[in-house]
Amino acid sequence: MEDITESVIKQQEHLQEELTEALKVHAESMEIEIFQRSREFDAANRQLRQANQELETFYSSLSREKAEALQALRESQEQLLQSQKLEAIGHLAGGVAHDFNNLLIVIGGYSSLLLNEAPPDSSQRGKIQEICRASERAAVLTRQLLAFSRKQVLQPRVISLMRSSRNFKKCYDA
Question: Is the entire prediction scored with pTM above 0.90?
């Protein structure tokens, strides 16, 4: 018999390093996209402020009736802008959630494989189970982000993760 413990540990460490590096690269690209979107929102806000100042100048010269109609129009424009911002955030959240979900599938799948390969008395088993549990919690958050991006109404409820887990069932059975 040959003790392969060190080989398995090195293999797990290598896999963990690869996953960590992939997450870092993906996080950087998400940060860049979020930064770009925030710059776009800032530019839109500056334009809105300038338009509001111009409207204020124009507003002061109008009669009361026209001013009230203009105020209603401005409120409608602000609501539209807010709606557009929320829609853009929803699209961004959806894209990020889809990408993140793809990474979670890899993490959950590999951690399930590692858990199946780990002997019952292995000191690594608890750590692998924590990875499985964390990936399931992250999957729940991802589903919430996707629901937000689809404008679905979230209905929070208490559930048992032990019973509802399908993708990572082996994580909890081990």
Answer: no
